[in-house]
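Good morning,

Both structures are done.
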Amino acid sequence: MSTPSQRIEPARVAFDTRGTPYAENFGDIYHSSDGGPAQARHVFVAGNDLPLRWRRRDRFAILETGFGLGLNFLCTAAAFLEDSERPGRLDYVAVEKHPPCLRDLTRAHAHWPETAPIADELQRRWPPLVGGFHRMELAGGRIALTLLFGEVAPMLAELDPGRFDAIYLDGFAPEKNPQMWSEAVFEQIARLSRPGTTAATWSVAARVRAGLQHAGFGIERRAGFARKREMLSARRPSEDTTGPNHGERRAVIVGAGIAGCWTAYTLARRGWTIDLVERHAAPAQEASGNPVGALLPAINLADNENARLARAAFLHASRKLALDFPADDVFGPVGLLQLAMRPEQAQRMARIVTTHGFPPEYVAWVEHAQAQRLAGHPVCGPGWWIPAGGWVQPQRLCAALLDADRSRLRTHYGVHVQRIARAGDQWQAIDGAGRLIAAAPTLVVANAYGAAGLGLSGLPRLISVRGQVSFLPSETCARLQTVVCGDGYIAPLPGGGACVGSTFEPGSQALELRAEDHLQNLARAARMLPGYGAGAQPLSLNGRAALRTATADRLPACGELDEGLHLFAGLGARGLIWAPLCSEVLASRLNADPNPVERSLIAAIHPGRDAQPAD
C-alpha cells in the first residue's frame, strides 16, 4: 500500500481595492489595512525588542507560526541588514500550511517596495509547493530562511528543541484558524524556546494569553498597531545574554571528495577554520572525479524516508547550484528526462505523480511525443520531466566549493590518514609514520570507503560499488537538449560527446577499463534513446571506472560517532544531491542552529540508525 506525500494546497490570495491581501482559505486579511510593513515592524520586530536583542548574539534565531506572504520575514531581514551591529547570521524558521504560489507572492511583494532587494532574492529561491522543510540562504549567507510547508504542530515537532531566541505568533485570527493557536502548538513553543526567549503577537485573545503562560512565558500588554488597541509581548525568564556556547570553531575534514568539499564550504560560511586532508594530490579524484553526473531526485510510490529525504536534498541542491554556482562549467540546469523503460514501469510512474499530486515545477508526467521533443532525439517511451534537474561537473564543483573562502581553509594533499586518535579535547589525524597531520576539537570523516579502515567504532556497514562510465565521441552521438535517465544516464560531456553510465558492481575494487562494460553502457544508451551511439566502437572508447560507497538502505551516513567525531559517508550514486543537504545538517548540529530538515530524517541518516530507539 502506498503512502502519499502530504499535499500542499496553495493559498488562495485575493486583494481588495486598497491592495490589502486577503486569504480566501480562511476568510481573513494577511495584515492590517493600515499598513502591512508598519504593522510587522511594530508588532513583531519591536514586540520582540529587536534589533537591540540580537546585538548581544553571535547568531540569532526567530520562529514564525504563519509565514503567509513573507511580510514579517522581509521586514525583519531588512532591519537585520541595515543594522551595523547585527550578528553574523540570522536564522529565520517559519511554518505555513498554505504557502502562496510564486505569482501571488510576487504580486504581494510589489506593494512593499521598501523590501524589494530581499523580496527579489526570496522570489528567485521560492521552492515548489511540496511538503517538508525548505532551507535557503539569502544575503550572501547572512540570512538562512527555512520554510516548513505542512500542518503547524507536526512541523514544529520536527524541529530540534531549544533553538529559538524570538517567536512571531502570526496565524489568522483564533476563531478563523484555531489549529494555529491550539494547545499542541503552545506545547511546541515551550519545547523550542530557551531561557530569555521572547514572543510577540497582535492577538490578545484569552486562549493566546493562556497558551503563552502555560508555555512558561510572562506576558505584557502593549499598545497595539493603528486601530488595534493592544498586542502581547512575552518573555521566558532567566535571560541568557550570551546565547548557546558553540565552542571553538575549528575542524579537520578527512577526504576531499564531494562530501568533504561541501562540508568544508558549509562550515567555512559559518566562520569555521578547516584543515582538509586528502590522500590524493588534488580534490575529487575518486568517485567525485567523473567528468559529469546527473542531478535528480528519487521518487517512489511509497513516500518513505528515502523519498522524502531525496526530495528535500534534490530541491536544496538544485536551488543552491543554480543560484550560488552560476558558472556554466559547474551546473547545467537543462532539465532531466527520466524515461519509463517498460509499459508496466510507465503505468507505475504515471500513478506516482497522480498519487502524490506533485507540482509540475518539481516533476511532471510527459507522454512519448512530448518526451521526444524535450530530448531532441527518439526516446523509448514516456516518463517524468524534472525541470530543475540537469548535469553537474563534480570536479569543477569541488574546486568552486574550496575556492569560495580560501582564507579559512588549509589543504593537506598527498597525505594519507592512517589513524584517528583523541588527545584531550582534540581529535587528531595521524599518518602512517605516526606523525600528526592536523588536530581540532571537531573531526569529520568524509573519505568514503576509506572510513572503514580507520578503526572507528559505530560505523554502519559500508559497501564498495564499482561503476564504469563510457565517453561517446561527438561524431557518434547527437547533442542532447537535456539529461536523459532510465536504464542509467546520458549527459553531455564538457568538450562535446556524451557520458553514458553507469555499470553497478558491488564488492569489486577493480579500476581498469573493460570493453564489456562499454558494451553494457552502449546497450543501455540504445535502450533509452534508440539508435543513440550506434557508430561507437567499444574497443576504442574512453571512459572511467571508480568506486562508490553505499549503505545497505541506500541512505547516506551522516552524524556523530563520538563527542566531536562525525561521519559523512555512504553517498552511493546520489552524492550530488546528498552532499549539500547533509553538510547543512552537520553544520547546523555543530552550531546548534535550527535543523534544515525534519529531525526524523536526520535520525534516519545517523550512522548508528539501526541501533537508534524510536523517538
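Second structure follows.
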Amino acid sequence: MKILLNLLAGVALLVWGTHIVRTGILRIWGADLRRFLRESVSNRYAAFVAGLGITALIQSSNATALMVASFAGQGLIATAPALAVMLGADVGTALMTLVFSFDLSWLSPLLIFVGVTLFMRRESTQVGRVGQVLIGLGLIILALQLIVLAARPLTQASGVKVLFASLTGDVMLDMLVAAVFTMLSYSSLAVVLLTATLATSKVIALHVAMGLVLGANLGSGMLAMMNTMTAPPEARRVNLGNLLFRLIGCVIIVPLLPYIEELFVSASLDAGQITVYFHLLFNFAIAIGFVFFTERIAHLAERLLPAKPDANDPAKARYLDASALDTPALAISNAAREAMRLADFVEQMLAGMLTVLRTNDRELAKKLRKMDDVVDGLYTAIKLYLTKVSREAFDEKEGRRWADIVSFTINMEQVGDIIERVITDLEEKKIEKGRSFSAAGMQEICDLHGRLIANLRLGMSVFLHGDLSSAQQLLAEKVLFRDLERAYAESHIERLTSNTVQSIETSSLHLDLISDLKRINSHICSIAYPILEQAGVLAKTRLKEAHAPPASPSTSAPSSEQPATPEGRESKDSWQKRKPRTA
C-alpha cells in the first residue's frame, strides 16, 4: 500500500508541477501568447508551428485547446486553421514528454532553489512569477524521479504483476484504461511518462505500453471535448476535429502495432525510451498525415456540430472568455467589458422607465421587466467568472480592480431591481387606475430622472477610467440629488395642502418614486467610493467633531469666555441651513 501511495504521490506531484508551469507562463505572457496565436493562423504551417511552440512552453495541450476553441467560438479563427494549431499542440506535448524522459535529476534542485529564491523575494512581480515557473519545472523533474523510485519495488511484487497481467491481452482494454486515467489526472504527459517508467521496470510489456500510449492520446482528446461541453458549436468543432484525428490515427496504427514493436525492438533502446519515441512518432505521423486534410475534417466537424440559429440572446455573456482565466489581467479586462455591457442594459431600463411614466406604455413596461432578467443573468455570469479567476498571483492593482468590478456589478444589479419595482408600481398604482401626476410633479420627476441618467453615464466613466476628479464630481452630485429629493418632497406636501387633486391621488406613488430615484442615485454614486478611498480623500464619517463641550443652562447666554471661532459660526450656519424649509 505504501508503494502505491508513493507512486500516486509522484503522479500527483507531476500533475501539480505541470499546472504551476502552465499558470505561471499564462500569467506572465498569457495575453502575448493569445495575440501571437491569433496572428499565426494565416496558413496551416504557421498555425502548426504556433501550436507546437505555445504548447511546449505552457506544458499543456489542453490549455492550448481551450484557447483555440475560445477563439473559434468568437469567430476569430476558422475551424481549419484551428485544427492545424491543435496538430502542432499534440506534437509539442510529445516533444516535452521526450525532453522530460531524459535524466535531468541534476537540474531539479537547481531549478527549485533558484525558483523559491526569486519567488520569496519578489513574489508579486514578474520576476517572482518566473521563479514560480522554475519551481514548477523543478517539481516535474523531481516527480519523475519519485515515480521511478516508487515503481522499482513493483517489479518484485507478485500481486502487482498479476494486476498488470490483465492488461496483456487486449489493446482496446489497454487504451480504455489509459484514456480514463488521463481524464482523471488531467495530463497525458503524466500518463505517458508513468507508462514509460513501468515499461522500463518490466512491470508491463512493450505492446501494453504502446496500447496505453494510444489510450493516453485518446483520453487527452476526450478531455478537451469535455472542457468545452457547454461552449457553442463553433468552439466544440475544434476539439471534435482533433479527437477525430486521434481516432483515425488509432484505427490505422492498431493493426500495425506488432510490426512497429518489431521495428523498435531491433533498435538499441530500452522499453521506456521506445514508449516515449512511439508517443512522439504517433503524433508526428498524425500531424504529417492530416495537416493537408484540415479543411475536410473541418467540414465533417461542421456537419456533426452545425451552428445553432442565432437567437441573439442578450443575456448571453459575450466577453467572459474561459480560456483567459489563467491570465488574471486579461480575465479582469474581460469582466470589466461585460460589466460595462450590463450597465448599458441598466441605462436602457432607466431611460425606458420615464417613457412608461409619461405614456403608460404597457408593452414597454413588460420589456423592461424582462430586461431586468437579462441584468440578473449577466450579473450572475460575471460574478461566477470572477470567482474562477485565480487570485493567488494578483498584484495590488489587479486585486483592487477585481474588487471594483464586483462592487460595480452589485450596484448595477440592485439598480435594475429598483427600476423593475418602480415599473411594477407604475402599472399597479398609475396605469391601471388611470391616474396622472400634476404638471409640477411630473417636471420634478423628469428633473431627477435627467440627473440620474447623467450620473449613471458619469459613474460608468469613473468605473472605466478611474479618474479622481470625475469621482469627486459624482460624489458631489449625490449631495445635490439628496437636497433636491428633499426639496421636491416638501413641494409635493405643499401641493397637497393646496388640495391639488392629481397630487392627492398620486401622493403615495410620487413620494415612493422620488425616494426610489434617490436610492438609485446612491447606488450609482457608490461607484466613486473605491477611487476616492484609494486617493485618501474620502472621509470616514459625515458627522462633524465637537469643538467645544455643550454649554450648561447657567451659561447658555453668550459670554466673553465662549470662543467665537470660525468653526463655531460655520456649525451654526450649517444648522440653520438644515432646518426644514416651508413654502
